[in-house]
Amino acid sequence: MGVLERWQVTSDELDEMISRSPSLRGLIFGYVSEHKLRKLWFSDKRVSNLHKSDNHDRARKGDLTFNYKGVEITVEVKSLQNALHTRSRRHVQGKFQCDASDRRQVELPDGHRIETTCLVVGEFDLLAVNLFEFRQEWQFAFARNKDLPAPASASTPRSSGEQLLATLIDVTWPLKPPFEPEPFRLLDEIAAENQKRP
């Protein structure tokens, strides 16, 4: 017996609830995005021990974790902001929110601790941005954490800002650097860099 049958909810009723509640839609869409990402890209035989990270573990960011070439990889999954994309004849441009769900204490790479909603450089390995809203197709943009932009806010101290990621980031279709349409070249680079570390 499936969940909807057990709850005595029809698919039409569920569709109505999702349509009426943007927060419910966003939550479900995020989980659907993770599911599609796993099936499209990380069911590959080069990937092993794929699992969903603990949402309640504030010490470790990343929605998915797996092993690739002997290295543990963490992936942060984000989605486009529906209202923040524009179309021209040549491309589509959008934005996605790239931050934590709430303010928390983080340790920066230089050892300082601050309270912020920003994600930290090096806090996860790979970013996957769900681009479904661009073309109504399941496509993703991938980028290494270290290639993402820093915050532009004047309220962020320069020394801290260089160690934090921007909270709202632009992405276009067709993709432009640092984004790529498939993850494996980036995963090769991440794995090679991690294998060199002592």
Written overview of the protein:
The protein is α+β, with helices and mostly antiparallel strands and 198 residues long. 28% of the residues lie in helices and 30% in strands. It contains 6 helices and 10 strands. Strands 1-2-3-8-9 form a 5-stranded mixed beta sheet. A 3-stranded antiparallel beta sheet has the order 4-5-10, with no helix packed on it. Strand 6 and strand 7 form a beta hairpin. Helix 2 packs across helix 3 (22-40). The longest helix has 19 residues, at 22-40. The mean pLDDT is 88.
Task: Quickly list its features.
198 residues, alpha+beta, 5-stranded mixed sheet, 3-stranded antiparallel sheet, 6 helices, 10 strands, 28% helix, 30% strand, globular
DSSP strand content: 25-35%
Helix content: 25-40%
- Backbone CA Rg: 18 Å
Helix-strand string? HHHEEEEEEEEHEHEH
The helix count comes to 6
Shape type: globular
Q: What structural class do you assign from the helix and strand content?
A: alpha+beta
Number of strands: 10
End-to-end CA span: 51 Å
Q: Biggest β-sheet, characterized?
A: 5 strands, mixed
Mean pLDDT: 88
Strand arrangement within the widest β-sheet reads: 1-2-3-8-9
The poorly predicted ranges are none
Please sum up the structure shown.
With 198 residues, the chain is an alpha+beta fold. It has helices spanning 3-7, 11-20, 22-40, 132-135, 158-161, 184-196, and strands spanning 47-52, 64-68, 71-79, 86-87, 92-97, 99-107, 113-118, 126-130, 140-144, 168-173.
List the helices and strands and how they pair.
Layout: H1 3-7, H2 11-20, H3 22-40, E1 47-52, E2 64-68, E3 71-79, E4 86-87, E5 92-97, E6 99-107, E7 113-118, E8 126-130, H4 132-135, E9 140-144, H5 158-161, E10 168-173, H6 184-196
Helix pairs in contact: 2-3
